[in-house]
Amino acid sequence: GENVEQHPSTLSVQEGDSAVIKCTYSDSASNYFPWYKQELGKGPQLIIDIRSNVGEKKDQRIAVTLNKTAKHFSLHITETQPEDSAVYFCAASTGTASKLTFGTGTRLQVTL
Amino acid sequence: DAGITQSPRHKVTETGTPVTLRCHQTENHRYMYWYRQDPGHGLRLIHYSYGVKDTDKGEVSDGYSVSRSKTEDFLLTLESATSSQTSVYFCAISGTGGVGNSPLHFGNGTRLTVT
Asked: In sequence order, what DSSP letters do the residues of B43-106 get, joined into one string?
């Protein structure tokens, strides 16, 4: 089955710097790659997603890039702010109704 | 926030007792899911439902059962709770086509401790 690896497990950046979180996947049939942000005491919330027919997608300070050949995708957060501090999860799906495999999460801390 | 309510939010129970967690949605979504979240494992699918009375197993379904008698409600039952089932449980919903085609929206979780 699909395996998603996520790095790093923890990341500390200064406010205003950029943060990059990387994920690799194993199933070449995967075609949908969402990213979730989880704040303390809450459920994960979708922040951006990308499909395999697109190489990059941006939404304000957040961008995701996808390299299908290498089977990896990355989340980029620019001009980080304290409210970006959270746990981020990547995930991959082959497009079925049930199969969404999550990475193990990255705890991002933005320091002042 | 998507209209998903999980109850209870916290529960402590003893080994061997049955436990039922409830998920209620107001979005009329077809697909509902139960995940567990554990350190080092991310989120793992327990069971899911693709319609009323239509359910199927996920990757960590042993020791769990589910029921969906109405579109809006999805129940997760631990038949005989064990310490390995101490976890945070999340209900999630998805629209047309399920997780591979529509965004997944999560509830705020139930923290279950089995002593």
From this structure: EEEEEEEEETTEEEE-TT-TTEEEEEEETTEEEEEESS--GGG-EEEEEEEE-TTGGGTS-EEE
First to last CA, chain B: 32
Q: Which residue of B has its CA nearest to A48?
A: B103
Secondary structure of chain B: what % helix, strand, coil (to 5)? 5, 55, 35
Chain A residues within 8 A of B40 when measuring between CB atoms: 104
Q: What is the pLDDT of residue A24?
A: 98
Calculate the dihedral angle through the C-alpha atoms of B85, B90, B96, B99, rounding to the nearest 10 degrees: -70
Residues of chain A with C-beta less than 8 angstroms from the C-beta of B43: 44, 89, 102
Coil, strand or helix at B99: helix
Dump pLDDT digits (tens) for A11-67.
999 999 999 999 999 999 999 999 999 999 999 999 999 998 889 999 999 999 999
Question: What is the pLDDT confidence band of residue B2, given thresholds at 50, 70 and 90?
Answer: low
